[in-house]
Amino acid sequence: MSDRGLVLGGTGGLGAVAAAVLQSQGFSVWVTGRRPPRIPDFSDPVRSTPLLGNGPSLDQSPDQPVGEQMGAPTNPRKVGNPAGEQARELVGNPAGERAGGDQVPALSVKPLNWIPHEYRSPEHTLAAVEEALGSPLNVSYLVCNFGPFLEAPVSTMQGKDWRFLVEANLMLPGMLVSAVLPEMIQRGFGRIVLFGATGTDQVVGRRLTAGYQAAKTGLGVLAKSVALEAGHHNVTCNVVCPGYVETEYYTEAMKAKAKRRTPGGMLNIPQDFFSLFKLLLSADTTYINGAIISSAQGL
Length: 299
Prior knowledge:
Layout: E1 4-8, H1 13-24, E2 28-33, E3 88-90, E4 112-116, H2 122-133, E5 141-144, H3 159-187, E6 190-195, H4 210-230, E7 235-241, H5 252-261, H6 274-281, E8 292-294
Parallel strand pairs: 1-2, 1-5, 2-4, 5-6, 6-7, 7-8
Antiparallel strand pairs: 3-4
């Protein structure tokens, strides 16, 4: 079984959490993004579970998305990509601190492989990934945490708006899934996690985000289709609809607006998702396949 994972949009937010789950198990992980990967902080004993894993199995170590202290990445190494930029290995400090000051044992992890990438088109992204990882894409784990957003009523949207939203939010994940699926089927193992959006676990109308919501809702069809085609080859594909999550991408104004919309006025935090990603990426989790999982607090 390949111990390689690819996290699209894995340099920050929930993508970094998924990357940390895989990295904590000793897997080789490639992440794409414009900025260097951020090392997630799991030092809060209330909202997160420190990473204590000691082996390559996803079922032998802790949970919660991305567990490590924030720190400056080190040890850059060229891996290569078609844009002429360097893909770099980055090593973080996976040890956090518990309340009271006692240290969480450090994990033995492989460096993150960063593929610096600015989205232009699905084809451009696929080419960048294949340049770094080779073709055909041979990974056991694929996480797609990317999807640009646009607010506009349907009556004002133009063809370029629809094309941009559908290509980035549906076509790109679809192309990546199609690229990795043959090798997963042949290997007899694969885990795929796609990111939907708030409310895309069902068909709903939106006043200002119809294009984005329509494309993200389509990921559910993709996941269920992969489950039907490849489930008997031990390949799972699921969609997570995370709701409002307080990541580094939220401004204070965005946080305030999201809190007004969220039951209880409390946003999710990235650490809340580590255990969910660990479950969905586990080799033992064959019974969850083609699922669309909402973690949006009822929204």
